[in-house]
Design goal:
By secondary structure, the chain is mainly beta. The chain is built from 3 helices and 16 strands. A hairpin with a 3-residue loop joins strand 7 and strand 8. The longest helix is centred in the N-terminal third of the chain and has 15 residues.
Amino acid sequence: MKILSTAAIIYTTLATLFLSARPQSASAQTDTIRLADKRLNTAALKPGTRQYLVYFQNPKKQKSLSFMLWLRNTQISNRDGQKVFITTQHWYGNDSTSYREAYSVNRLSDFAPIYHSETIANKNRAYNWAANKITGADSAATNTVKNFALDFKEPTLNWNLDIETFEMLPLAAGKTFAINFYDTGSIPPAYVLYKVTGSEIVTTLDNQKIDCWKLFNESDYQGRHFTETFWISKKGHELLKEEDTFNGGYRYKIKMPGLTPDVAERFKVK
């Protein structure tokens, strides 16, 4: 069995570390994002495919970078008589061991999670998601977590869809958001703080100047410091760029232009 690629290992580490670290206490000015309040602007989440170039930089290795291509597709559909968002994700690296995919269903009205499935290293984990609990899904024949169950104290949002969640936030200068995220199968849900730290102009491929909010998160885990910064366009509510720091290294995500071929669709061709 091949060892996971460096990029896949770093991704898994980041996922664990950011969710394991509890945020500092929220101040009185913090906006708490609760599903019951319906503060997410679901109309801002645009259907379609978005692709990101993801690359990792270790300053100690000055002649190499690790790359992945990340595809996210969101569509509006019907499930059991209600309108839903269906979001699929594909991660592609330089070999098949780094590939991962996810399939998520969320209620259209407030983005409440209904179902989530992910496949990593050919192992599938599928969950039915409710307001008060999450359980392994019996409907997935290859599900490796059929016996999983966790009760919630309050409804949570799906951390696997953090980017989509950020694009629906009422971003504004000086705001801080406390979001109750849960990463399927991991530690219990936690409120994570994200702060709007200012604005910045981002130059796109065609030299357009796009005014963006900068959304920032930081955490400490086992004596090490980690940060995430997201650039989200003010007009279009799109994530254009992300930069993370951890262990002296960096991870970047850059939104690719619309002319980028949809490799997920081409892989389906028989």
